From TrEMBL:
One Pfam family in the UniProt entry: FRG
SMART domains, sorted: FRG (SM00901)
Domain spans labelled FRG: 23-116
Name of the protein: FRG domain-containing protein
Source organism phylogeny: Bacteria, Bacillati, Actinomycetota, Actinomycetes, Streptosporangiales
InterPro entries: FRG-dom (IPR014966)
Renumbered residue ranges of the record's region Disordered: 256-280
Species this protein is from: Nonomuraea glycinis
Length: 280
């Protein structure tokens, strides 16, 4: 991409094709501040036999977070854990390309960033029939936690739905706070913890689009987003977001390095390989 206008036109063109009856695009977006960052879950970054740790992480999070009860399903608990930095198989996305671009441009100004888009409607056509059924019945683009809970009451049940082809499912988290709402949050879940979104992207290139955002274009986009109010103050409501916005605003001549790179839409920090999630 050589300019904000070129990228904006490309996003609009990609968003133009939609399923009949839907009033909005079927794309979800994820922004990375460095193109070298990966689409690997925070659970996988624990390394070792991390898949075996997943049920222990979820069980103990539910046990010790008993004062914060998000909803009845394991998917509600996973969303809450992701929001607060628990290592999970989930990745953060957003329905808004502007939100994703915020996290593409809010840090690492001298590095190429990446904006990724996936067609979740076409992606969900590859799901096992038992998972597609609630989506088709509701006429929904993405799952709710209740719909996922109907098809898979726990992670073990979800993993057993895997056939010979691993799959990717997108769901909206519950509105845990203004951060989730303001970021138009979406989460992805892979059909098993050891299968990464990066692998899925490589196997389904026709279902995804990616744009490299060089430093000069980063600066142009950042200025446009700041003028439009797509900043930490809006996306991370509260004192943390205010402090992050002020820190970036008053850093002379640059965008502060080390803030969130962005992927989807939740809270918490996960430095992992130097990348943070969309919301801090």
């Amino acid at each position: 991409m050589s300019s904000w206008r070129e990228l904006d036109d490309a996003i609009c063109e990609a968003s133009g094709s939609r399923r009949p009856g839907l009033a909005h695009s079927t794309l979800v977006f994820r922004g990375l501040a460095k193109s070298s960052f990966s689409h690997v879950s925070s659970l996988a970054r624990l390394e070792g036999d991390y898949a075996a740790l997943e049920p222990h992480l979820v069980r103990n999070f539910r046990k010790y977070a008993h004062r914060a009860i998000p909803g009845p399903t394991v998917w509600d608990w996973l969303a809450l854990g992701q929001h607060h930095g628990l290592p999970t198989r989930l990745l953060d996305w957003t329905f808004s390309p502007l939100v994703a671009l915020h996290f593409t441009t809010a840090s690492w100004p001298e590095e190429d960033g990446t904006l990724l888009a996936v067609d979740c409607d076409r992606t969900h056509r590859l799901l096992p029939e038992s998972l597609r059924a609630p989506l088709e019945r509701e006429g929904a683009l993405v799952f709710t936690t209740e719909m996922l809970g109907e098809a898979a009451r726990d992670l073990a049940s979800f993993d057993r739905l895997t056939t010979d082809q691993p799959f990717l499912a997108f769901f909206e988290p519950p509105s845990l706070d203004e951060r989730v709402v303001n970021q138009s949050s979406v989460l992805s879940a892979t059909s098993r913890p050891t299968f990464q979104v990066e692998q899925w992207l490589g196997e389904h290139p026709r279902l995804c689009l990616g744009w490299t955002v060089p430093p000069r274009v980063k600066a142009e986009i950042r200025e446009r987003l700041d003028q439009a109010g797509v900043t930490e103050r809006m996306l991370l409501p509260g004192l943390d977001g205010l402090a992050a916005w002020l820190r970036r605003y008053y850093t002379p001549g640059t965008i502060e390095q080390g803030e969130a790179d962005g992927g989807g839409s939740m809270g918490g920090r996960d430095r992992g390989q130097g990348e943070g999630r969309m919301s801090a």
